[in-house]
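Q: Convert this sequence to structure tokens.
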Amino acid sequence: MKFHQNIVRLNSNKIKSMSFYLSIICTLFFSCKTKEQKANKFVGDFNKIMEHNPPTAVVSSKAYYVNGSEVTISAGFNYVENQFESKITEDTAPEIFINIINSIPSGKDIYNDGVKFNLNLYDKNRVKFAETTISKQTEEKTQI
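A:
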């Protein structure tokens, strides 16, 4: 009888340890998101934030998922009326949007993963006056 209890105890310990390892493997498997999933999460997070709390000069801004390595951001500015203002905005907008992207956890993840952000800038009449690409690679090239 004692022998049988020891075997049952060994089997239950073995089952417990196997289920523990299996749960860890499942957790790791399901918690690892693909670049596409991260990009989609960022688009949703960005659009929610910009809908409720956009920067002062920005009339509207929306992110669109392109693919696992690209996201497009369209931003309309309310004060761009002439070529001088559009040039200043074109020069400063990438840095502003890098800060916005990195302030969103999902954005920081995909930015560090090498996702490119196509930034399209529009004036108050919704006329595109600039487009640029923001990425970790372009930032590193600029800083050299």
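The mean pLDDT is 80.
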